[in-house]
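hiii, so i know i said id send this last week but things got crazy w the move. better late than never?? heres the sequnce for the chain we talked about at the cafe, plus the structure i predicted for it. fair warning i was half asleep when i ran it
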Amino acid sequence: MEKTLRQIGFLLVIVASLNLGACGGGGGSDVDSSADTQTTSSAAQPHLAESIDNGDGAYDVTLLGELGTDNQAVAINDAGQVVGHYCSPSGGRNVFFWSNGTMRHLVESARVTDINRTGEIVGWMKKGSTSEAFVYADQLYYFDLPPGASRAYGIDDEGCVVGRCYAKSENSFFDADGETRILVPEVFGYATDISASKQILIKVLRQDGFHSLLLDSEGTLVDLGSLGAQNTQAEDLNNYGQVVGWSQTRSGQYHAFLWENGEMIDLSRPGWSFSSALAINDSGQILLKASTAKGTLITLWDDGEYTDLNHLGLDYVEVTDMNNQGQIIGWTTNDDGFFRAFLATPL
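okay and structure toks below
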């Protein structure tokens, strides 16, 4: 990795503005109209968490604080630290870091995708006219990659990073201890996740649809297959090689799946028109989202048992990740219609 010269205080990075897409429920702009934005004094101040009564008692639900307008939690580690995005008044998307009840501004005009046990995070930011992958450890680092856009998607507890780079074609990259290399250059796809045993998920778009591949530490590449049709999208990988996501059935529906030991298992239930498995932890618990005639359903799958999580006591819920303690993150809406990140801890 190439060490950047930009290091400003604790967990504080100032970079040029970047269009990262619309900010959530408050109707933020699709374009970050600011130029060379600076970290504001309000963004630099800690924002405290707020516990709420979920009316059920199965989970302790905490609202993580408020920076800017919309706050969306993206990833959580086993220490209960959370990273996500918040929107500035100009509509730009920034990165926050939450730990021990306090939310702080982390990186301006950037996207975050993952956080490991020691609090190292990965994502990407604007670099000139393109995007550039980064890892934030003791400071900000870039990677030694061919010229072109890049994005970092996954980091393991040893600090190994996987992601996506564009040179002559789209490829996956892997970085360990500052040594960066292209993975299976003949495969046009991108790496999205990495396990403790260095298994790596790769997403590929071919002429016949989306495919998900699993690359092991010996270099063996396995296509996960599908539930009957062509399209499969893996969303998460745990440290035991279990993979979850969604796959298309012969009837054209998209169903949540669990893949293990070479077999893909359909996790959908009767009455679900669409479902996806968003996260899996090392205990094999799976976080599911489904569409039903009554609306969206959030469910926890555990050894064949389904538990409805819509009882979290929040009027609106989106979930994104879950750690090995069963803590769940996502976002809800506040009274003004803006997104508010939350952490749900099982009791």
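btw Residues 1-21, 26-44 have pLDDT under 50 and may be disordered. thought thatd interest u
miss u guys!!
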